[in-house]
């Protein structure tokens, strides 16, 4: 049996589209029949829960009781994968909490699969977060995500800048989330449904909807490109990893 997998999605800067990335991850696992649950740490409102209410619970990750709700249930939950959408600006403190409770040691020992999707902004200040986050990445799969969904314009880093930031962590992997047509993105936001349901022309309760054929086409094409990135990093293989010393399960 695969060991429990935890994916943390976050940033130390707000407005970089981290919840959008969490939504694509949840849709990807759904499409690949991977049992998944999610925790939205944007307490008390919760944006992720608005789109995935059936599998998402709102928590306050700064409280011990909610930390127990997440991590004491890893081995007993029906879902094999836990996605944690970390509140804007709280990635480093959240990782600090995981260190303090011994979670990072358990991941390093191979008892838990741990991955971090670090959503980057376009500025050097955002890149400076990498140095802070690097202290927590031992035993984790670390993904640096350039998210263009919100019309972000990343400057082209020269080679020296690239090396100084992106090579700070051994085996860090870049992921690119392409831009989605603005009107299509806005329509999904208004509809408050997962991207996958929007493409299928379904409402939150799976009832038939009447979304634009054109906008659904844009979302379908965009989502396929995002999932191609997840396929490239073999995301389903990562979360299907077995205990250290066991053979790795195939996801497909």
TrEMBL record:
<dbReference type="InterPro" id="IPR027417">
    <property type="entry name" value="P-loop_NTPase"/>
</dbReference>
<protein>
    <recommendedName>
        <fullName>CobQ/CobB/MinD/ParA nucleotide binding domain-containing protein</fullName>
    </recommendedName>
</protein>
């Amino acid at each position: 049996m695969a060991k429990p997998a935890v994916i943390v999605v976050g940033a130390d800067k707000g407005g970089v589209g981290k919840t959008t990335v969490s939504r694509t991850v949840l849709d990807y696992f759904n499409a690949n029949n991977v049992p998944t649950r999610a925790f939205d740490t944007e307490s008390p409102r919760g944006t992720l829960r608005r789109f995935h209410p059936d599998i998402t619970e709102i928590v306050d990750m700064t409280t011990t009781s909610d930390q127990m709700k997440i991590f004491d249930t890893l081995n007993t939950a029906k879902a094999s994968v836990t996605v944690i959408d970390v509140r804007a600006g709280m990635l480093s403190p959240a990782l600090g909490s995981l260190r303090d409770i011994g979670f990072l040691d358990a991941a390093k020992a191979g008892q838990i699969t741990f991955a971090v999707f670090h959503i980057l902004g376009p500025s050097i200040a955002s890149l400076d977060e990498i140095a802070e986050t690097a202290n927590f990445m031992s035993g984790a799969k670390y993904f640096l995500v350039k998210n263009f969904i919100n019309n972000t314009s990343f400057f082209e880093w020269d080679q020296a800048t690239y090396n100084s930031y992106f090579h700070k962590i051994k085996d860090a992997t870049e992921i690119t989330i392409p831009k989605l047509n603005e009107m299509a993105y806005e329509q999904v936001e208004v509809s408050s449904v997962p991207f996958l349901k929007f493409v299928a022309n379904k409402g939150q309760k799976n009832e038939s909807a009447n979304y634009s054929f054109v906008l659904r086409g844009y979302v379908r094409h965009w989502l396929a490109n995002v999932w191609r990135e997840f396929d490239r990093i073999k995301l389903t293989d990562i979360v299907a990893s077995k205990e250290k010393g066991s053979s790795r399960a195939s996801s497909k």
